[in-house]
Structures are given as C-alpha cells and as structure tokens.
UniProtKB/TrEMBL annotation:
Domain annotation Nitroreductase: ranges: 11-159
Protein name (record): Nitroreductase domain-containing protein
Superkingdom, natural source: Bacteria
Keyword tags: Flavoprotein, FMN, Oxidoreductase
Residues in coiled coil: none
Keyword Isomerase set for record: no
UniProt keyword Oxidoreductase present: yes
Reported cofactor(s): FMN
Amino acid sequence: MEAFMDTLTTINQRHAIRNYTGAKPTTEQLKQILTAAESAPVAMGQFERYHLTVIEDPDTLAAINTAAAAAFHGDGGPMLYGAPVFVLVSVDANGGELSNADYSSAAIIAHTMALAATDLGLGTCYIWGAVAGLVQSPDTVAQLQLPAGFVPTCGITLGPTTEQYAPRPVDEHRIGVTQL
Ligand SMILES: Cc1cc2nc3c(=O)[nH]c(=O)nc-3n(C[C@H](O)[C@H](O)[C@H](O)COP(=O)(O)O)c2cc1C
C-alpha cells in the first residue's frame, strides 16, 4: 500500500483520533503497521523482551474495556473508543519491575505504529489509561495469552475514521525549550 505523506507531514498531521467508523483496517494496513513496529528501536536491542498482541475479537475488546472502565469509574465507558483493533505492547518484567528504558521502548513502539497508521490514513490513539486499568484485572490479562512474565504497558487503537488529517498549526512553546 502506498504511503501518501512524508515524515514531517505525518508528524504534523497526526492527532489522537477517538472516533471510528467500525470498519476494520485492511490486512495489508495491519501488516504495514506491524512491520513498522518491528522497525522500532528498543533499549539495548533486547527485542525478545517486547510482545505485541493484536486484538480484534469483539469479546476480548469488550473485556478489556470493562476491566479498564471498572478500574477508573466503573461505568463501562468507551475506554477504547469502539475501535475495531487494539494493539497492546507488553514487556518481559522477568519477575521484577520494569525500568524507565523498558517503558520508553514500549512507548516508542506504540508511537512508531501510530505514525505508520497516520501515514496510511487510519485513525489511532495512544492508550495508557485503559492499560493501567487492565493490569488491575489479572483474569482479563490472562485472556490475552501473553508470554510468561510479560506485563501490558501501553497500546494503540486502530481503525478507519471519518476524521481527516490536515496541516496543524503548532504552538512552538507548548513544550518548554532551553537552548544552550
Ligand atoms: C504516553 C501517552 C499516553 C496517552 N494515553 C491516552 C489514553 O489513555 N487515552 C486517550 O484517549 N489518549 C491518550 N493519549 C493521547 C493524548 O491525550 C494526546 O496525544 C494529547 O492530548 C495530544 O493530542 P494529539 O495527540 O491530538 O496531538 C496519550 C498520549 C501519550 C503520549
């Protein structure tokens, strides 16, 4: 599938999309996004410590949504925004605690997928809140069949959207910068 943005355009136009048509991404789109994930860097090149779970099964999506909502406010709200696909990034904690580099690597994998999805014109949103809720429900985590010792850290929703990507004005000072 042909990309239609250059990198800086993709970075500028990407924004969090929380509305989905309900249609699924094509197999080819999903493959390209997963290939992008496999291109992402991870700390110390320890790729074997990261795992992606591509969740399209409606019952599993609903279970994650319910577990996440229960952890936050209990009303079963749309923590995954009704997206048809959720890609979860998990990391091998090896029985201990995850490090800053572990979380950062997982985030970079997620962001790489989000940029690829944007480039393909698909909607995508970073999902940390729902994953924080998910990990409080061991029964739901067990349904995900993660490799032993792996812990969910973050993910992205994916799906076609009616929202358009368009040039965005960027406030150049919203993140503080010191130049020395
Ligand atoms: C680390 C991280 C975690 C985020 N977690 C969530 C989340 O759980 N749910 C959500 O709807 N958006 C989440 N977001 C999206 C941010 O709210 C969003 O990117 C930010 O408000 C800037 O908006 P933009 O992405 O449209 O530029 C997250 C973004 C990042 C970088």
